[in-house]
Amino acid sequence: xxxxxxxxxxxxxxxxxxxxxxxxxxxxxxxxxxxxxxxxxxxxxxxxxxxxxxxxxxxxxxxxxxxxxxxxxxxxxxxxxxxxxxxxxxxxxxxxxxxxxxxxxxxxxxxxxxxxxxxxxxxxxxxxxxxxxxxxxxxxxxxxxxxxxxxxxxxxxxxxxxxxxxxxxxxxxxxxxxxxxxxxxxxxxxxxxxxxxxxxxxxxxxxxxxxxxxxxxxxxxxxxxxxxxxxxxxxxxxxxxxxxxxxxx
Length: 249
Hints:
By secondary structure, the chain is an alpha+beta fold. It contains ten helices and six strands, in the order ββααααααβααβαββα. The protein has helices at residues 18-24, 28-41, 48-61, 67-76, 81-102, 106-117, 130-141, 147-154, 176-183, 215-248; strands spanning 5-8, 11-14, 119-127, 165-170, 190-196, 199-209. Helix 2 packs across helix 5, helix 2 crosses helix 10 (215-248) and helix 3 (48-61) crosses helix 5 (81-102). The model has no long low-confidence stretch (mean pLDDT 91).
């Protein structure tokens, strides 16, 4: 037989055509991710203690407390217990790989990104009319009305549903023009109206919440570094495959 093939419901698919089929079905990124996960973790053998701790964490997260809840989870996810254990084993290997390769970069990454990871809570009023913005700002400055009352009554965005209060939100997720003002403020500072995306905005800083390198932050940053690494490998491989397929066509 000149060409190896697989049979799916009576239809023969050439293995040589598989890369083209994966590309057409937009499954190549998923295939490559699974391939690289298997390739880079094949030498990792978790200890029994690591497996027990990882499994206990998973069971607690999924609310599996007894045999019945385990049976329900397996049924809902269409998995056997053996399949679940295999999935957990492979997931643990990936977690070990992440820590081994990216944990040493945590502090440097955190320090470099801390200003964007810090969180802020602030109050916002936005209106289309400049004169109305000036009037509302004066009322706030003279303490004639509360920010909450004015935001609920006059603000023309979804923030009026929350009395103008926004956050806590990371600085990195705030528009740079707004974040710059917030960073140069102290809690309680009231900014005069300024124009932003066809609105006039009034800001007041309520509270700063500095980011800390706790367990949750460590896990998040490691996952982000890993995702960036594996997505880079996937993109490079796909580019090379595209060139190869184009040359053969």
